[in-house]
C-alpha cells in the first residue's frame, strides 16, 4: 500500500488474463484480489507479457492492437 501511496506503483494487472490498467479502472476494481499484480510502468507490464486495458487505456490498447496485427 505504501508504494501505491508514494505513486511508485501506478498500474494494476490481472495475472490470469494478462491485462493491465490504471488503479482506478472499473474493470480492474472487479478483479479477484488473488489475481492482482502491480506494475510501476507500462513498459514493465508489457515486458511481463501483459496487454493494456481497452477500457481505461484506450490509446495504449489501440497501439497494442495495431502492433499485433502486423
Key descriptive features of the protein:
globular, four-stranded mixed beta sheet, 4 strands, 70 residues, 4 helices, alpha+beta, 20% strand
Structure description:
- It is a single chain.
- The protein is an alpha+beta fold and 70 residues long.
- 36% of the residues lie in helices and 20% in strands.
- It contains four helices and four strands.
- A four-stranded mixed β-sheet has the order 3-1-2-4.
- Strand 1 and strand 2 form a beta hairpin.
- It is globular, with a radius of gyration of 12 Å.
- The termini are far apart.
Give a nutshell description of this structure.
The chain is an alpha+beta fold. The chain contains 4 helices and 4 strands. The protein has a 4-stranded mixed beta sheet.
Following the backbone from N to C, one meets helices and strands in this order, namely: HEEHEHEH
- Please give the share of residues in helix: 25-40%
Number of helices: 4
> Could you name the ranges where pLDDT drops below 50 across 5 or more consecutive residues?
none
How do the strands of the widest beta sheet line up side by side?
3-1-2-4
Mean pLDDT: 87
- Which geometry do the CA atoms define? globular
Proportion of residues in extended strands: 15-25%
How does the major sheet shape up?
A: 4 strands, mixed
Rg (C-alpha, Å) = 12 Å
Briefly note the structural class of the backbone: alpha+beta
Q: What's the β-strand tally?
A: 4
Distance between the termini: 39 Å
